[in-house]
Amino acid sequence: MEYAIFKAARAELEAILQTRKAAWDSVEERLIAETGLARPWPMNLTPDAIKMHPDYRAAKAAWNEAWDVSRKLNGKFAGRFKKEIRADLAALRQSRLEK
Q: Which residues in the chain show pLDDT less than 70?
Protein backbone atom coordinates (compact mmCIF):
# COMPACT_ATOMS: atom_id res chain seq x y z
CA MET A 1 0.00 0.00 0.00
CA GLU A 2 1.22 3.46 -0.84
CA TYR A 3 1.11 6.33 1.62
CA ALA A 4 -1.40 8.30 -0.47
CA ILE A 5 -3.82 5.37 -0.39
CA PHE A 6 -3.31 5.02 3.37
CA LYS A 7 -4.00 8.74 3.88
CA ALA A 8 -7.17 8.54 1.77
CA ALA A 9 -8.41 5.50 3.69
CA ARG A 10 -7.63 7.16 7.01
CA ALA A 11 -9.42 10.36 5.97
CA GLU A 12 -12.46 8.36 4.92
CA LEU A 13 -12.48 6.51 8.24
CA GLU A 14 -12.18 9.80 10.13
CA ALA A 15 -15.23 11.12 8.26
CA ILE A 16 -17.15 7.96 9.13
CA LEU A 17 -16.09 8.25 12.77
CA GLN A 18 -17.26 11.87 12.93
CA THR A 19 -20.60 10.98 11.34
CA ARG A 20 -21.19 8.08 13.70
CA LYS A 21 -20.13 10.12 16.74
CA ALA A 22 -22.59 12.85 15.73
CA ALA A 23 -25.33 10.22 15.42
CA TRP A 24 -24.41 8.78 18.81
CA ASP A 25 -24.48 12.26 20.39
CA SER A 26 -27.85 13.07 18.82
CA VAL A 27 -29.34 9.83 20.18
CA GLU A 28 -27.95 10.68 23.60
CA GLU A 29 -29.40 14.20 23.50
CA ARG A 30 -32.79 12.86 22.39
CA LEU A 31 -32.82 10.34 25.23
CA ILE A 32 -31.82 13.03 27.73
CA ALA A 33 -34.78 15.08 26.61
CA GLU A 34 -37.13 12.09 26.77
CA THR A 35 -36.04 10.96 30.24
CA GLY A 36 -35.74 14.44 31.70
CA LEU A 37 -32.31 13.77 33.15
CA ALA A 38 -30.22 16.89 33.60
CA ARG A 39 -26.50 17.34 33.35
CA PRO A 40 -23.99 17.31 35.00
CA TRP A 41 -24.22 13.66 35.94
CA PRO A 42 -22.31 12.22 38.87
CA MET A 43 -18.67 11.68 37.90
CA ASN A 44 -19.68 12.59 34.32
CA LEU A 45 -20.99 9.06 33.71
CA THR A 46 -23.94 8.45 31.40
CA PRO A 47 -26.91 7.17 33.44
CA ASP A 48 -27.94 3.54 33.01
CA ALA A 49 -31.40 4.59 31.82
CA ILE A 50 -29.73 6.07 28.73
CA LYS A 51 -26.92 3.53 28.29
CA MET A 52 -29.32 0.58 28.27
CA HIS A 53 -31.68 2.06 25.67
CA PRO A 54 -31.54 0.09 22.38
CA ASP A 55 -31.04 3.22 20.25
CA TYR A 56 -28.08 4.33 22.36
CA ARG A 57 -26.53 0.87 22.28
CA ALA A 58 -26.94 0.63 18.49
CA ALA A 59 -25.37 4.06 17.92
CA LYS A 60 -22.49 3.26 20.26
CA ALA A 61 -21.95 -0.13 18.60
CA ALA A 62 -21.78 1.54 15.17
CA TRP A 63 -19.16 4.00 16.47
CA ASN A 64 -17.19 1.20 18.15
CA GLU A 65 -17.15 -0.77 14.91
CA ALA A 66 -15.72 2.19 12.98
CA TRP A 67 -13.22 2.86 15.78
CA ASP A 68 -12.00 -0.75 15.66
CA VAL A 69 -11.45 -0.55 11.89
CA SER A 70 -9.58 2.75 12.31
CA ARG A 71 -7.43 1.36 15.11
CA LYS A 72 -6.54 -1.73 13.07
CA LEU A 73 -5.65 0.33 10.01
CA ASN A 74 -3.48 2.73 11.99
CA GLY A 75 -1.85 -0.11 13.91
CA LYS A 76 -1.00 -1.99 10.77
CA PHE A 77 0.43 0.90 8.75
CA ALA A 78 1.65 3.49 11.29
CA GLY A 79 5.03 1.80 11.60
CA ARG A 80 5.32 1.30 7.87
CA PHE A 81 4.70 4.98 7.09
CA LYS A 82 6.43 6.39 10.17
CA LYS A 83 8.61 8.88 8.28
CA GLU A 84 5.75 10.16 6.12
CA ILE A 85 3.42 10.60 9.10
CA ARG A 86 6.11 12.52 11.00
CA ALA A 87 6.72 14.75 7.97
CA ASP A 88 3.00 15.48 7.69
CA LEU A 89 2.76 16.33 11.39
CA ALA A 90 5.81 18.59 11.17
CA ALA A 91 4.30 20.40 8.18
CA LEU A 92 1.00 20.81 10.04
CA ARG A 93 2.79 22.19 13.10
CA GLN A 94 4.77 24.59 10.94
CA SER A 95 1.66 25.85 9.18
CA ARG A 96 -0.05 26.46 12.55
CA LEU A 97 2.98 28.37 13.82
CA GLU A 98 3.02 30.61 10.76
CA LYS A 99 -0.58 31.72 11.33
A: none
